[in-house]
Amino acid sequence: MQSDLRTRLLQAFSEAEGEFLSGQKLSETLGCSRTAVWKHIEDLRSEGYELEAVRKRGYRITHKPDKISGNEIQLGLKTEFMGRHIHFEEVVSSTQKIAHSLAGDGAEEGTIVVADQQTGGRGRLARAWYSPKQTGIWMSMILRPKIPINKTPQLTLLTAVALIQAIEEVTGLTPEIKWPNDIMINGKKIVGILTELQAEADRVHSVIIGIGMNVNHSLDQFPEELQAIATSIAEETGEPADRAQVIQAIMKNFEKLYTSYLIHGFKPVKLLWESYAISLNKTLIARTLQGTIRGRAIGIDDEGVLLLETAEGKIEKIYSADIEI
Ligand code: BTN
Q: What is the pTM of this model?
């Protein structure tokens, strides 16, 4: 747990946006002695922060360590409700599990569960999700939309758009979407999304959206079987990204899209989604629980369902599948 004073110190530096803050100003803002300020600054240094100290001007942070504690995420967060409640753990089995339990206990909409490492991370179709420490974003978001159950898959597509916008904003990379929930760069997966529900008959209690993003892995850190199919932001840009900053960007973009979706429906999201989709107009193989369908992807319908045109000219609706391009 960080002390309140530490939180306020980091807040002050965050608001200063890289400008110097004098020792005098800091001691007034925080209501403590200049010696106490100096001690906290030394503590920050020992944790990996780099601070420049200039006589008569004060201090400024020149480098933040890549930490994703609740404080790091909250400082600089520009949202109304997304990420306003953060449940952070160093190591968990799966953030989805924790989010389900918090949602069952009445956690507020926008609550996020973030971990530095998962030991039992899971993906779609009960696959394992590789989640080593200090490299990725392993996070679950709790939502409480008042929408019918059959519309909830739209939230996966909306999340994909928000993730692409966030990655673009922070790194300049433009990933693409492989329906329904894979985000790819140069043909390799960089993010996976897992949408789960707590619902009864026709009422959604909560939607738990799990996001697994490979951020600072180097290729040789991936298990051998993933090296040909997975990548990370650092691999693609050549430099590490600040995970807390990426989470803040996800929160901001998600909140904007989600708020608009609840008012205007899926249409605007659909247009954005289509602009990022790689699979459109390509011939795909969709492996569904009911069997395998081969066809040309002609788009998604207004519900977010994938439409495949088979060689016989029949339009097949794909609600859930594993896609091979
Ligand atoms: C996929 O199969 O592509 C979805 C992967 C989702 C992984 C994330 S990591 C955070 C959250 N916790 C989990 O156990 N899974 C999701």
A: 0.86
